[in-house]
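G., the chain you wanted modeled:
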Amino acid sequence: MSVKVYIDGQEGTTGLKILERFEGRNDIELIRISEEKRKDSKERARLINMSDYTFLCLPDEASREAVSFIENENVRIINASTAHRTNPEWAYGFPELSVAHRDKIINSKRVAVPGCYASGFNAIVYPLVANGIIPADFPVFAYATSGYSGAGKKAIAVYEGEDKPYEYNSPRQYALSQEHKHLPEMQAISGLAHKPMFNPIICDYFSGMVVSVPIQTRMLSNGVTAKQVHEMYAKHYSDAKLVEVKPLMSLEEQKSFFLASNTLSGQSKLEIFVFGNDEQILLAARLDNLGKGASGAAVQCLNIMMGIDETTGLV
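Predicted structure as tokens:
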């Protein structure tokens, strides 16, 4: 038996990637909107209320507007915008974080898909706080390298255009005011008492990212070691199908290893690494910003809500 699915914002990057992940599935009946009515509020509302599940792949305000269209109480919403990610009435769409997160996705009619940077950050920091490795008031800093696909259609056009500015050939730091839109989500979901510092860097490749969090263990009183942190992650994600904790490397192995950011481009999983030593531990999460950080995560949530294998269409 198939379910009716509508994607509001199906021409955007995330919407198109969701459509790709639906190819070959016979358990989904896609509801399409005609091009000329793509911005027609009445038509969008009609299609949302026809659906069993609607994906919102829209800017924040348009996403909030779309939620207001709902009259059919049975419609289940999977929201890929930043709106509602910190709303306790919505399920947070990262099921691997905890049993409670997964159960809320199963039972909710409203699911907020994580942001790409926040997915990597929370995959690292949530277990640290939940398992008592760091206290909630620990001063956390994170930095990240990302492909340009997450910057939107206009930025993609510049990166791929003939008149690309010279500076776009270089990695570029941004959100220097420490007001990145993912910061509230990163703090709220991870359990931190204060906003982390965050240094995102956009680079000249299409998709994929690495989010890194360094920990100076002298600031902790628990004497934790890199091996213990790795064992904690391995246990925390032991049942996860789309989160993989990579083996702990020796110091000699680390010396010759380069952590690329585009390795998981096009994939829907996330990898966690523990580097460094017992004095300075470097934690990293690698993912595709359009996969586990957007469309892949959205489809995973749909699968869970449908009660089927969560990796359907993803592996």
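The chain has a mean pLDDT of 95.

Shout if anything looks off.
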